[in-house]
Amino acid sequence: MEIGWLPKFGKNHLNGHYKAGFGYDNSSYPDLLEDVHGNAWIESGMPKRYRAGRASAWVMADQMLVRNGDGPTNGLIALAGWMWSDGHTTAMSHHIWAGMVETGAAWGRPMDSVGAMYQWELMSRASTLQQEAAVNTGVAFPSNQWGTVWGIQSHENIYEVFYNAHVAPGISLQPDFQYINRPGGSTVFHDAAVMGLQFNAVL
User: Fold this and answer.
1) What span is annotated as the signal peptide, if there is one (predicted)?
2) What is d(CA 106, CA 108) in angstroms, rounded to the nearest whole number?
3) Domains of the chain: which residue ranges?
């Protein structure tokens, strides 16, 4: 279920997109922490508890603040979002992000974009307690939706800047830089600086 609002503000028709939603999956999923008696299954050796259903919710928005041209994205746009998922069965319970994107600015390249983003990802309490139980028991960390787990996870911060260059009709290149604090959500690895290059072609 999702509701939305698509306003246009002022004489420059500053576009906005706002939406909020809620989802529910009625499948059964194993609890990350609890066994059938409510104790940590890693420590007890008992069968995992299964939970009926998994809920999720989200709020997302983007709003043009300054218009630079006629296109729907030609301007300075602020964006942000929040997502939540049931932490009993999902390793990451919260995801929050915010950023700014500028397109069509007056630097002689009206089809280029430049932007900056911040993301914060929080692991669920059940996932963290599961990993602490694994340490106490001396067994390997169970993998989760993020893949292999190397240490007790809590949260991860991602800082990103990018530039999307329109190089030919229908073709763009986007160099991207990310600085990742607590890679994988733990302190096992040092902070990471990552460079990437994305190639886009519309045929």
Assistant:
1) none
2) 6
3) 2-201
SS3 content of the chain, % helix, strand, coil (to 5): 10, 60, 30
3-state secondary structure of 133: helix
At 117-151, the pLDDT tens digits run 999 999 999 999 999 999 999 999 999 988 899 99
Q: Identify which of 39, 41, 83, 78 has the alpha carbon closest to the alpha carbon of residue 58.
A: 83
Interacting residues of 104 by C-beta distance below 8 A, sequence separation 6+: 68, 69, 71, 73, 74, 75, 110, 111, 112
> Can you give the pTM of this predicted structure?
0.89
**171: its two tokens:** 């073709």
Name residue, tokens 């630079």: 68
Low-confidence ranges of the chain (pLDDT < 50): none
Distance CA 100, CA 117 (A): 7
| DSSP states along 55-117 | EEEEEEEEEEEEE-SSSTT-EEEEEEEEEEE-TTT-SEEEEEEEEEEEES-TTT-TT-EEEEE
